[in-house]
Amino acid sequence: MGPHPAVAAIRLAVRRVLHDVLTDVQRTSENAPSPLPPPAHPPHPAHLPHGQPPQPLVLVACSGGADSMALASALAFEAPKLGIRAGGITVDHGLQPGSDLRAAEVVVRLTALGLDPVESVTVQVGRSGGPEAAARDARYAALDAAAERHAAAAVLLGHTRDDQAETVLLGLARGSGIRSLSGMAATSGVAGRYRRPFLHIDRQTARKACMVQSLPVWDDPHNADPAYTRSRLRHEGLPALEKALGKGVVEALARTAQLSRDDADALDTWAAEAEATVRDAAGLLECAKLYALPPAVRRRIVRRAVIEAGAPAGSLFARHIEEVDRLITGWRGQGAINLPGKVVAQRQGGRLVIRQG
């Protein structure tokens, strides 16, 4: 008798991603030197077959919640069969009393699954961009550092189809374009470091997999706190949409994310190719040539130029780009436009000048 369907589903999803990781590792070793630094604590030679290179390491980012515990269990089961070492990282944000004890418990649970190395990393959460964004920035910085410290080939994240649907709705509410509707990528980060195997698996499947395997899980109280936008969306917004529109809203939003990502990737490629044709010999953007481009392509070029000048991408919204775009399409002699990051955009002699103010 095979495993429970929920367990089979999460294992299959992880197995597919691990095969992709192995393919990428092999391609890198064949075609170029690895960009990753040597691990701080390389495996003991006795752990390796004689004459064989070290096995690649894949880490799982685990909060102790159902999604990431299900992911950790699937990684622990599948990785050894593919000759991959599996480890785990938990991040203590220090935002709740007893968070250090929770992190220690997660370390114990991951170790019990057979993961090695396993560690807890404590971070300081700032205030930039709001509490959710600040916690996310601190978490990813810690995961990046852990991946480099251990020379990990990849870090697995437990985002589910439900998380993807919430991300799409949040992007829609911001009104910041098709890229924000594309949600989370299955592969992201430096050299494809982050992998999200569960983007096609719903949250209930992950929770069920934990239950049938008797895996203890921790439910973060922040996930039910109405002070957080995502929490309100999860417990009020999505249920209201399903009540009004019927079941299938989450699946439809996840499909929207993939379709939007495909379109956004194509437009980004077009913009990257077009950018060289709209700059003069001095490298300045020529307004007449920009005007001739489709708006979606032109605004991507403008946005990239603003970010390169020093504007934080997370603070740059559609209204900022629209204001700069009017310097190209609705020129009436208007003055300079102040943008996030102390960046200034203005039109001078038919050129769009974007610089630090």
Sheet-strand content, in percent, reads 5-15%
Distance N terminus to C terminus? 68 Å
DSSP summary, beta strand count: 10
How would you classify the helix and strand content by structural class?
alpha/beta
The sequence of SSEs as H and E is: HEHEHEHEHHEEHHHEHHHEEE
CATH-assigned fold name of the largest domain:
Rossmann fold
CATH superfamily of the largest domain: HUPs
Uncertain ranges:
43-49
In CATH, the architecture of the largest domain is 3-Layer(aba) Sandwich
Mean pLDDT, as a whole number?
A: 90
Across the major sheet, the strand order is 3-2-1-4-6-5
Q: Helicity range of the residues?
A: 40-55%
Biggest sheet details? 6 strands, mixed
CATH class of the largest domain, anyone? Answer: Alpha Beta
**If you compute it from the alpha carbons, what radius of gyration comes out, rounded to the nearest whole angstrom?**
23 Å
Report on this structure:
With 357 residues, this protein is an alpha/beta fold. The chain folds into two domains: 5-253, HUPs (Rossmann fold); 279-356, 2-Layer Sandwich (Uridine Diphospho-n-acetylenolpyruvylglucosamine Reductase, domain 3), CATH 3.30.465. The chain is 49% helix and 12% strand. The protein has helices spanning 5-31, 66-78, 99-112, 131-149, 161-174, 178-181, 203-212, 229-245, 249-275, 287-291, 295-308, 318-329, and strands spanning 57-61, 85-92, 118-122, 154-156, 187-188, 194-195, 285-286, 337-339, 343-348, 351-356. Helix 1 packs across helix 2, helix 1 (5-31) packs across helix 7 (203-212) and helix 9 crosses helix 11 (295-308). 33% of the residues are buried.
